[in-house]
Write a structure and sequence with these properties.
81 residues, mainly alpha, 2 helices, 65% helix, rod-shaped
């Protein structure tokens, strides 16, 4: 969010006479880049949480041995060959 504040402060510092089409394009580019960076950071922070949730789901979905007992090839679910 700091980047957005800096971009907003810079954009507001330009006089009304300087705010032409180029100024608008620059401000839009700065804001789009800042928003994209914030979204990427948020996705990066969510990855460990999502992985932990998947691991917990896998651990809690294993209720015990299936037919054949723990030593059987099908004790861990479908065979992967």
């Amino acid at each position: 969010m700091w980047t957005l504040r800096l971009a907003a402060a810079w954009a507001c510092s330009a006089s009304l006479l300087q705010r032409d089409g180029d100024w608008i394009a620059v401000v839009e580019g700065l804001l789009a880049g800042a928003v994209d960076a914030e979204h990427a950071a948020a996705r990066f922070r969510r990855v460990p949480v999502e992985r932990a949730a998947v691991a917990e789901e896998l651990l809690t979905s294993t209720v015990g041995p299936v037919s054949g007992g723990w030593g059987s090839p099908c004790a861990v679910g479908p065979a992967v060959r």
